[in-house]
Design brief:
Layout: H1 16-36, E1 48-49, E2 60-64, E3 70-72, E4 75-77, H2 79-87, E5 96-101, H3 107-119, E6 124-127, E7 130-131
Parallel strand pairs: 1-7, 2-5, 5-6
Antiparallel strand pairs: 2-3, 3-4
Length: 134
């Protein structure tokens, strides 16, 4: 009599689910790494200061270009759009920003951006400058 019911099968390692998990981990680590890359901002001609200090990395770097346009993380905003973006960020009171204005930007444009940041509730505002010490 031939009994196949009691035969033992050799164990196999299923690699298809393991490949799925590895691809998921790869995508997860790529997404996390992209979020860790700091925003370098634009190539602006920053004003110089003898008292410029290096500050911790800000949450947002607001770049004001020569023509007065505002650029944050590669997106152009008008002043109303900038205020909406900052208020929708979560808790604006804990948001850290640095305003980087080109050397040729009128001071009034800088003040308009700073006013909109404060109107949105942001209180931790830094000003970017290039150190003129050698």
């Amino acid at each position: 009599m031939n009994r196949r019911y009691f035969e033992q099968k050799k164990g196999r390692v299923e690699i298809i689910p393991m490949i799925d998990i590895m691809l998921f981990l790869l995508v997860f680590f790529i997404m996390i790494t992209l979020q860790m890359i700091p925003d370098k901002g634009l190539n602006l001609q920053l004003p110089t200061s003898s008292e410029a200090q290096s500050l911790p990395r800000p949450h947002f770097t607001i770049n004001i270009e020569k023509d007065g346009s505002v650029n944050v993380k590669g997106h152009h905003y008008d002043l109303n759009g900038l205020e909406k973006m900052l208020t929708s960020d979560g808790d604006p009171g804990k948001t850290q920003i640095t305003i980087a204005a080109d050397r040729g930007v009128p001071f009034q444009d800088f003040i308009h951006v700073m006013d909109r940041c404060q109107k949105a509730g942001v209180s931790d505002i830094g000003i970017a400058a290039k150190s003129n010490q050698t």
